[in-house]
Fold these 3 entries.
Entry 1:
Amino acid sequence: MSIAVRLAMSVALAAAVAGCATSPVDYGASLSPRDQKWASPECQRARAAAADYEVREKQHPGWEFAALGPYGLGLIAAVKEHEQKQRKLFARNVHLQCSSLPLPKELQGI
C-alpha cells in the first residue's frame, strides 16, 4: 500500500473521529442550569474558555496543509486529532466546573 493511500486513509479516519467529539459549548449547554455549580464564577469561566476555543478552532481549520501533498495529509490528521483531544479537555473542564454529577465515562482518563 502506497504512502499516499495510507495517509489518505489516516485523514479520513481522523476526520471521522474528530466529527464524533462533542463541542464543549454544546456539552455545556446540555448540563443542568439548576445545578448549584452552574452559576459559579468557575463555571462561567470554563464555558467562556470553551466558547473561545470553539471560535478559534473554526477560524483555523487546518486544511492549508493539503498544499503540502501527502505530507500535508498527515499534518491534517494530526491537527484534527489534536482538536478532538482539546474538545474533550474543554468539555471535561466544563463538566467539572459546572456539574455536581460524576464525570461521564467518555471524559475520564483524558
Note: The chain has a mean pLDDT of 78.
Entry 2:
Amino acid sequence: MRVELRDSESFDSLLRRFTKEVQKSGLLRDYRSKRRFVSKSEQRRAKARKAEHKRRRKLAKMAQQQ
C-alpha cells in the first residue's frame, strides 16, 4: 500500500488516508482470516451460520416494516 504526501498535508491526514486505503483494499481482513488454519468443514459451517443469521435479520426487518 502506498500513499503519497500531498502539499501542506499533515501527518494525521496522511495516516487517515492510508488507513482508509488499507481498509478499502481488504488487506487486513485477508491477513486476519489466514492467521490460523480453518478446515473446509469448519468453513462450511461458518458460512451456513452466517447465511442463517442473514436470513433471520432479513425476516425480522421485513416483519418490522409491516
Note: The chain has three helices and no strands.
Entry 3:
Amino acid sequence: MIYELRIYDCLPGRLPALLTRFNDHTLALWQRHGIRQAGFFTTMVGENSNRLTYLLAWDSLAEREAKWTAFIRDPDWLAARDASERDGPILANVRNELLAPTAFSSVK
C-alpha cells in the first residue's frame, strides 16, 4: 500500500470554495474513478490556516498513475474545477508526497 499526502494552501478566504468543490464534486468523481481517500484535514493550529491536507490510498504506483491521470482528464472534473474558480483562483500552492508505511506503522 502507498499513501499520497497532498497539501493544498489556499489563497486568503478561498478555503471554503475548495471544501465545497471537494464535497460537492471531487469526491463523487473520485468514487467513479476508484480513487480512495484515507482522510481529510484542515489546519487548526499551524503555519497556515488556509490549508487542506488529505491522504489517498493506492495499491501501487501504477494504480495511482492510471487512476489519477483518468481523473485529471475527466471533463466533469475540468468543468467543476473551472466553475469553482469562476470568482478567481483558489490555490496558492499544491504539494504532494508518496509515502510507504514502515514495518511498525499501524497503517499498512
Note: The mean pLDDT is 97.
